[in-house]
Amino acid sequence: EDQVTQSPEALRLQEGESSSLNCSYTVSGLRGLFWYRQDPGKGPEFLFTLYSAGEEKEKERLKATLTKKESFLHITAPKPEDSATYLCAVQGSGNTPLVFGKGTRLSVIA
Amino acid sequence: EAQVTQNPRYLITVTGKKLTVTCSQNMNHEYMSWYRQDPGLGLRQIYYSMNVEVTDKGDVPEGYKVSRKEKRNFPLILESPSPNQTSLYFCASSLEGPNQPQHFGDGTRLSIL
C-alpha cells in the first residue's frame, strides 16, 4: 500500500530563516511525486512534480528534491506570504489514486 | 481563466436528504476526481474519471455516486447523506491522468446533521 509521511506537522520560522520540509514515501512504481501548497479556505495549488531520484526543481524561494525514499521542500529566506500548508503526494503504478500526506503547516513570522 | 468550479461552497443539510455537489472545469481536461479532506486524515480520493467513458472508485467511495456525461462536468451525489460524510470536499482535474498536476477547486464544506 502506498504511503506518505510528512514531517514536521507544523513549523514556525522567522522571516529569512531557511529550512526544509520532509516527505517520506513508500510506493510501488513511482510515477510522480507532487508538492502542493494549500492556503486556508482554498484548494491545493500545484507547485512541483518530480519523477525520478536525483531530480530537482525550483520556483522562487522553493526547491524540491527527490531520492528513492523521500523528498525535501527547501525554503530559502522565507517571507510571511510563504505561510501555508504544504502537501506531498505520490502516484504509483497504473492509475492508482494519488496518495497525500497530512501536510506541514508552515508559519513565517515577520 | 482556467479553473475548476464547485457549487455550493457551503451546505448544511440533514441526514437522508439527497444532495449533489457540482464540479465543472474549463480546461478540456480528461481526468477528474473527487477528494474529501478531514482533520488528521488528509486528502482521500472518493471517485475518479479517466474520461467520459470511464469512472472508478477511489479509496473511500462508500455512500457516494458520480456521473460523467460530459467532459467538463463531474458531479458528486450523496443519495442518503449521513453525519460521517460531514467533510470538506474538493474536485480536481488534470490533462490526462493522476500522474499529472491536478487543478483543484476551492472546496465545498458539507455539514450533515
Task: Tell me briefly what this model is.
With about 110 residues, chain A is mainly β. Helix content of chain A is about 0%, strand content about 55%. The mean pLDDT of chain A is about 95.
Shape of chain A: globular
The main pleated sheet of chain A reads as:
6 strands, mixed
Radius of gyration of chain B: 13 Å
Mean pLDDT, all residues of chain B: 95
From the alpha carbons, calculate the radius of gyration of chain A and give it in angstroms: 13 Å
What percent of the residues of chain A sit in helical stretches (DSSP H or I)?
A: under 10%
End-to-end span of chain A in angstroms? 41 Å
Unreliable stretches of chain B = none
Explain what you see.
- The complex is a heterodimer of chains A (110) and B (113).
- Helices cover 0% and strands 56% of the residues of chain A.
- Chain A is mostly beta strands and 110 residues long.
- In chain A, strand 7 and strand 8 form a beta hairpin.
- The mean pLDDT of chain A is 95.
- The radius of gyration of chain B is 13 Å and the shape is globular.
- In chain B, the strands form two sheets. In chain B, strands 2, 4, 5, 6, 9, 10 and 11 form a seven-stranded mixed β-sheet that branches. A four-stranded antiparallel β-sheet of chain B has the order 1-3-8-7, with no helix packed on it.
- By secondary structure, chain B is an all-beta fold.
- At the A-B interface, strand 4, strand 5 and strand 9 of A face strand 5 and strand 10 of B.
